[in-house]
Amino acid sequence: MTTGRIAGAGRLRMTGYAVLQVLLSVLALVLFIVDVVAVVLSVIVVGIPILLLSVPATRWLVDLHRRMYARVLAEPVPTPYQSTAGTSALERLRIAGADPMSWRDLGWLLSALPLALTTSLVVLILFVPVVTGIAWWYGVGPIMAARSRIDRWFLAFGTTERLEQRVETLTETRNQSLDHAAAELRRIERDLHDGAQARLAGLGMTLGMAAELVDRDPDAARRMLAEARQTSSAALGDLRDVVHGIHPPVLADRGLKAAIEALALDLAVPVEVTGQAAATLAAPVESAAYFTVAECLANVAKHAGASRAWVELGGTSDLLSVVVGDDGHGGADPSSGSGMRGVARRLAAFDGTMRVSSPTGGPTLVTLEVPCDSSSPRTTPSSGRG
Amino acid sequence: MRLVLAEDHALLREGLIRILEAHDHEIVAAVEHADALTEALADPSVEGAVLDVRLPPSHTDEGLRAAVGVRARRSGFPVMVLSQYVERIYARELLASGEGGIGYLLKDRVGDVGEFVDALDRVASGGTVLDPQVVSAVMARQAPVERLTVREREVLGLMAEGRSNAAIAGALFVTEKAVGKHTNNIFTKLDLPVAPDDNRRVLAVLAWLGV
Whole-prediction pTM value? Predict the structure, then answer.
């Protein structure tokens, strides 16, 4: 940081924080009482509507303090809450209840009053009378740093807890990926078994019969050969469909944007594809993003009643972001529909997230973001020749 | 015709050589790599090409790019592009120049040797041949197509595939005169400009379909 001896924020700014903290401690007290009462009352249901308001309010207040201590300590602002993207209000409340950080917030509200209030007050008292100016000059940095460390102890997870959380997330997404992969393999197996395999078996039989008939009844043999050719064509058609479901050829040939454009061409609703991914995409990430967009566009065509749709690619060198929007009637519920859940799970394997904003009356916007390791090169397909 | 053939699968390459040579085409070069293809297409005595889309080194769209490249150099150079799958986005690129002498078919279609050789001849004489799968995909998206009768839709599909009135008449077991009547009806109903020859007519239909 540029301020030299005192990292992060300057003295006046820190004093400003102290003033704000003193004032907000009143709100902290109120929120603590409301939260505790609402939690108790939620046993007889009446607390739930209160919690629907008080939990976001508490999080807002606590996040404000997180930003202040992060500024004082010159650290990045942590975002320790579990993701509640794309869930209903009650579901968000349930996740908040299970989130250990919610309870740490409460503990902090309680401690913020005596402990943190004292330190902030000291800064204030030192600042106000001129005689203590020297003490303020030298004291404000260490005192505010001490208070910020207390805040941090409550409001951010330590390394071990962060790792625990990460392991939990990874275990969950790994299981989901494995389930997803197993289901996909079963689907492919079934498609091959019912399609190409059956047709090829039939083809062998037809050819065998034609061979037997070729001397006795050349006309019938010729008919069978023609039939065999049609069957081989149908088998190839089945294989093409299977390949398309695994890894679409245009995606392999031209990458994400061209593949989405090819997808858009086949849709009844006109789709505009703009932007470009700034990140270098690994093949699995690209594929997951493609199938998510495909699912979104399929939903647009099926449900949205839209007259147009758009796909906007963007992001940074280590983040892919894609927005799929339509001007339909809105009211889409991301938690219904197995297709959407499937692609969300597929994205989660890459720490990708999906947010759906779909107010009644539209427009519907689906935003997906996938972090990309910019060091991993785009893998070119080594198999599957045309 | 003196042809260049590019296909990286040995089995399919041999099959294509056999079919083409049996129908009086001369294979000047049969290559399996994009670099060799570029070299072979540089020969000015070559009269046409049959290209696979995916070729080494990257196994993506080398053949397609070679087709667009050679036609940019030699206007109307006949090229038949073959692939395991057909994509509208690629059809659009091949047709973008607005010139005839281009074909885009699934490899399966080679199995019907007579049809395939006929399609190649049409491409060689400046015609446009488009795979039925692409045609049916674009027709499904065009609402005004519903104004046509079933028979007219069949005729429109075959026209978009690049067939002449005579060929359409043969495929549908009707007289050429009847096809002519259907064609006039289609052009009137869809408000299409009347085109002087077969190939312009195909291109007009494809443009209308938004390929």
Answer: 0.71
